[in-house]
Structure formats: C-alpha cells, structure tokens
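To illustrate the input format used throughout this study, we show a single complete record. The first block contains the structure-token representation of the backbone; no residue identities are included at this stage. The design step must infer an amino acid for every position from geometry alone.
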C-alpha cells in the first residue's frame, strides 16, 4: 500500500523520544507528527487526519493542560468529526475526563502501552469510517428523497408513490394533513417530479393573508385598482404560469373568492383586480389544508363544485407519530444539519433521547421535531443530545385521555409504535419485544389502524 492510500494518523507530542517511538509503532497508517498547536493545526489543514493523538502538556505550558485543551478546541472547531485521543499523564485522569466532555473521543494513560493505544486508535478509525458512511447515506436520502423528504416508513412510502404517479398528469391535488406534516415539502416534490419542473413553484398561505388582500395576491391588480396600487402587478397564479401554485390552507379562502377561483379552474383564465381583460394562464394548482373540508362543504362554508375541481386526487399525509421509525430518522437528520452550523461538537443522540423521541406524540409533527432538535443542539453540553436537552424528559403523552379505555389505547399505541421502530418494522421482532404473539399484534394493528 502506498503512503497515499493509508489513513493519516496525526500525533501531537512535544517529547522527541516519544515522537520517535510512536512514529514507528504502527503499521498501516501514514504518521504525521506535530510538536505544538500551530503545527497541529497546519497538519489538520494539510492532511485532514481522521484520528489524532494529543498530549495535553504542550509548549508553552508543557507541565499544564491549557495548551492541550486549546489545541483540542481548535481541532474540533476546524474539523468536528476528527477523533481526538488525549494522553492523560500520571494522576491527570480528571483532565482526561474533562477533555472527553469537551469533545475528545477517548484517552490513554501514560506511560504509553503501545498495544493498548493501538487498539484505541484502530477503533477510532473504524468509528470515523462508519460515521462518514452514515453521513453519506443520510446525504443520499437527503438528495434522493421525494422533494428532499426524509422518511423510511411504509406509511410515507405510500404517499410518495401516489404523488410520483400523479405528478405527470395534469390533475389537481389536495393534500390533507395536520400542521407541520410536510405538506408544502410534498407539494414542491410533486412540482419537481412533474413536467412543469422548469416553471416556478409558488406557494401562498391563504390563512396568513387578510381577506381584503387575498384576491389581489392571487389574481394580481391593475395600476390604480385601489389606493396604493401604484403599478400593475401580477398575482401568484400568473407568477406560477407554466409551473405550480401551492395554495396552503385552502379552507380559509372566503366564499366570494372561491367563485373566482372556480372560474379560473374551469376556464383557465383570470382577470386582475381592476382589470377588464381576461388573461389565459396555464398553472397547476396543488392545495392543502388541515381542516375537515368535507365538513365545511356540508356546512356550506366551502363550495362543493370548487372542492371537486381542487380535489381530483386527495392524498392524506399521516401524522409523524404514525410513521414507523421516522421520528428518530428525522431527528438524526436535523441533529446533523443544526450541529454543523450551530454546535459542531454535537455528533448524535443519546439513547435516552432516542427513546424519548420514539415515545413522544409529536402533536406539532415534523415542524415541532425540527424546532426541538434545533434548540436541543444549541443547549447540548456534550457530544450527544440528551432527553433533557430535548425537554421531553418524563413528559407523558397526552395525559388527559377521556376515560380508561382511551388511556389504554393511547398506551397501547405508544408501546406498539416504539416496538415497531426498534424492530425496524419487523412484526416478529416487535411482538417479541411486546411479549405478545404475532396474531395478537396483527389484531391490534388492525383495530388501531396502525401499519407495520
Ligand atoms: N419528511 C420530512 N423530511 C424533512 N423535512 C421535513 C419533512 N417533513 C417536514 N419537513 C420540514 O418541516 C417543516 C414543516 O414542513 P411543511 O412546511 O412542509 O409542513 P406543512 O404541513 O406545510 O405545515 P403547515 O400546514 O403548518 O403549513 C419544514 O421546515 C420542512 O422542510
């Protein structure tokens, strides 16, 4: 093997004798040696070693640990995924533990036992390689997923399959799902997978715009149409010509405007506010709501004819809690994303955090998960985000159940979800974890309308 193919091990050590001893101790690595912080950081820049052994007693403080700690901090700030193994001198166990709290990977005791250190070093290379592979896979899910969607659950696979199938057809799609389930993300995915992907994707939240302005936002206005209309302006429907317009919270469109929207869907023409001419526009509409539109139609609050125009295909987006294993997968993704920009020392989730995420009901769905993880990454003291950082520690899922039957159902659902997540969706594995037979688990899945 040439030196170029070998993994680089950086040894930061000021004792020339030890440098020599370590340089020749290991086969299979390209050894780079640094005697102080500046040399160490130069070597990190030049060689990007996966693993570093670091003596904490470096000049100008060879008998203390300040320079060693500063070097550790700088290395991790520069390349957070580096596995740094610190040397703990005789009686300096406390500093070694402090170094681990600061992000070091492991420590070894001096005087050096070459074989023991060799094992730590090779394990560090191994874990570094696994983590790198993990990041590559996560990035692949990121890039390849429908619209950047992160999911490994069968429930979401059904959703994305449906959307992929309807993307090429010029039909209107209505996405139904609770807030934060990713409706906008999916609408964008649908646009990207459609022949209109070169056109614009324009999104508008109908609930966020005052009724009086919504018409001109959607249809545009002519100069002088109303006070303040100083120039002719295109509306969102025109901006999305050749592309897709995502109408979020369609249930909030007032009845008078529903008529105008219906006309657009029937005749594919619009009239700007204050305008007289009709303008043909070729825009695909994808809409979404968290409201019960069927009920709104029954109550006369939503026009039935518009509903059928908008809802040629209806896709229901499951709540995050009903997506097997997705909460932890998404949590990992958000940890990686936010750690990179906000707290590079953080590398993952502690086991208690994973269990808490599994068990939580996520009423705010992916948006809530994303916000909690972002906050937890900022708050985390060590390398791993804990349940306490997530503020989920000991919180019970919806304690205000209606009666004993409802409370039992809640507990059953939670236990089943967790078991399925831990068994990677495998029914036999999950039933073993739950201490019930496979047929009983199948019965429960059916009666609670859950999916493996
Ligand atoms: N499966 C997913 N993978 C990655 N990110 C996701 C996923 N689902 C949602 N998100 C992210 O969560 C946030 C909320 O998603 P989005 O805005 O699409 O939800 P929504 O259902 O449209 O919410 P609302 O109805 O409240 O507008 C966004 O930042 C989005 O990128």
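Output of the design step:
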């Amino acid at each position: 093997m040439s030196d170029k193919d070998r993994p680089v091990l950086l040894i930061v050590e000021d004792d020339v004798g030890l440098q020599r001893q370590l340089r020749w101790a290991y086969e299979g690595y390209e050894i780079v040696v640094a005697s102080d912080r500046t040399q160490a950081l130069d070597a990190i820049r030049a060689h990007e070693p996966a693993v570093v052994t670091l003596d904490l007693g470096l000049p100008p403080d060879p008998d203390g640990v300040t320079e060693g700690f500063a070097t550790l901090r700088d290395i991790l700030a520069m390349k957070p995924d580096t596995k740094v193994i610190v040397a703990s001198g005789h009686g300096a166990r406390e500093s070694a533990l402090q170094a681990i709290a600061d992000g070091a990977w492991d420590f070894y005791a001096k005087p050096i036992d070459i074989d023991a250190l060799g094992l730590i070093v090779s394990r560090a290379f191994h874990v570094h390689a696994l983590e790198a592979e993990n990041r590559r896979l996560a990035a692949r899910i990121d890039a390849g997923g429908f619209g950047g969607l992160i999911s490994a659950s069968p429930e979401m696979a059904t959703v994305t399959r449906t959307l992929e199938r309807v993307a090429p057809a010029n039909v209107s799609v209505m996405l139904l799902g609770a807030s934060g389930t990713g409706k906008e993300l999916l609408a964008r995915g649908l646009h990207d997978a459609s022949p209109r992907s070169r056109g614009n994707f324009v999104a508008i939240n109908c609930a966020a715009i005052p009724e009086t302005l919504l018409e001109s936002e959607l249809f545009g206005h002519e100069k002088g149409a109303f006070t303040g209309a100083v120039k002719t302006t295109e509306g969102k429907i025109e901006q999305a010509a050749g592309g897709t317009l995502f109408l979020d919270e369609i249930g909030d469109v007032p009845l008078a405007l529903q008529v105008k929207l219906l006309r657009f869907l029937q005749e594919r023409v619009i009239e700007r506010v204050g305008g007289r001419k009709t303008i043909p526009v070729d825009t695909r509409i994808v809409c979404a709501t968290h409201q019960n539109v069927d009920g709104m139609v029954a109550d006369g609050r939503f026009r039935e004819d518009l509903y059928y125009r908008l809802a040629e295909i209806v896709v229901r987006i499951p709540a995050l809690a009903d997506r097997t294993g997705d909460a932890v997968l998404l949590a990992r993704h958000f940890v990686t994303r936010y750690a990179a920009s906000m707290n590079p020392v953080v590398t993952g989730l502690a086991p208690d955090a994973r269990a808490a995420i599994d068990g939580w009901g996520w009423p705010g769905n992916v948006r809530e998960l994303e916000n909690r993880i972002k906050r937890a990454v900022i708050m985390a003291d060590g390398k791993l985000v804990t349940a306490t950082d997530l503020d989920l520690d000991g919180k019970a899922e919806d304690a205000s159940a209606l009666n004993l039957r409802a409370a039992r159902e809640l507990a059953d659902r939670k236990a089943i979800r967790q078991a399925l997540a831990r068994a990677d969706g495998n029914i036999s594995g999950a039933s073993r974890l739950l201490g019930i037979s496979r047929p009983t688990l199948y019965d429960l899945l059916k009666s609670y309308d859950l999916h493996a």
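Structural context for interpreting the output: The chain has three domains: 3-132, 147-318, 329-447. The mean pLDDT is 88.
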